[in-house]
TrEMBL record:
Subcellular location(s) of the protein: Membrane
InterPro entries cross-referenced by the UniProt entry: NnrU_dom (IPR009915)
TM stretches of this protein: 6-22, 42-60, 72-90, 126-142
GO annotation, cellular component aspect: membrane
Record's protein name: Isoprenylcysteine carboxylmethyltransferase family protein
GO molecular function: methyltransferase activity
Organism per entry: Algoriphagus kandeliae
UniProt entry tagged with the keyword Transmembrane: yes
Length: 194
C-alpha cells in the first residue's frame, strides 16, 4: 500500500509541477497579480521544494524491501551514474542564473531571455532531466529497493509529459528559433557521432 501512496505522491508532485509551470496559467496570473507576479517563480520554487521534502519524508518511512541486494559492480556503477548525473546538472546550470531560476531575483518584463544552446544544451535539450534520470538510475543500483524503483519508474513515465509541456512554453517564448533547435538537438540522449 505504501508504494501506491508513493506513486500517488509523485503523480501529485509532477502534475502540480506541470500545472504551475504552464504558460497559460502564468499569463492568467500575470494579469491578475500585476506587479506581485514577479514573485511567482519564488512561490513556485518554495512550493515545489515543500512537496519534494514531504515526498522524501514519506519515502523514509517505508521499510526497505529489496528488488536485489546491491553489491560490487552494480553498486559502483550506480555511484558513477549518480555522480555523472549530478555533474551534468551542475555544469548545465552554469548557463543560466540560479537566483532567477529559483525566483530570488525576479526577472523584469524589460529583461529578455535568450535561448541557451551552448555547453550541455548543445548536446541535449534537457540536461537537467538527463541528470535526474542518471541520478535516479544510480540510486536504484545503489539501494536496490522497490522504493527507488518506484521513484525511477515515476520519473520515466513523467518525462515525456514534462518535456512536452516545457517545450510548449519554449516554443511560445522563442518560436521558430526553438523549433529549429529542437530539430537539431535530441531531448535527453545525445547522438553518438561516429
Amino acid at each position: 500500500m505504501n508504494y501506491l501512496y508513493l506513486i500517488l505522491l509523485w503523480a501529485l508532485f509532477y502534475a502540480l509541477h506541470s500545472i504551475l509551470a504552464a504558460g497559460k496559467l502564468k499569463r492568467i496570473l500575470k494579469e491578475k497579480l500585476g506587479e506581485a507576479y514577479k514573485w511567482y517563480r519564488l512561490f513556485y520554487s518554495v512550493f515545489s521544494l515543500f512537496l519534494f521534502i514531504l515526498l522524501i519524508l514519506f519515502t523514509l518511512k517505508i521499510p526497505p524491501s529489496y528488488v536485489y541486494y546491491p553489491e560490487g559492480l552494480a553498486e559502483y556503477f550506480g555511484y558513477m551514474l549518480a555522480a555523472f548525473g549530478t555533474i551534468i546538472m551542475m555544469q548545465s546550470s552554469k548557463a543560466w542564473s540560479l537566483s532567477k531560476f529559483i525566483g530570488l531575483k525576479p526577472q523584469e518584463d524589460s529583461e529578455s531571455e535568450h535561448l541557451i544552446v551552448s555547453g550541455w544544451y548543445k548536446r541535449i535539450r534537457h540536461p537537467l532531466y538527463a541528470g535526474l534520470v542518471l541520478i535516479f538510475i544510480g540510486y536504484f543500483l545503489v539501494s536496490g529497493t522497490y522504493t527507488s524503483l518506484v521513484h525511477l519508474g515515476c520519473l520515466i513515465i513523467y518525462l515525456p509529459m514534462g518535456i512536452y509541456f516545457e517545450e510548449k512554453n519554449l516554443i511560445a517564448q522563442f518560436g521558430q528559433k526553438y523549433l529549429n533547435y529542437r530539430k537539431e538537438v535530441p531531448a535527453i540522449i545525445p547522438k553518438l557521432k561516429l
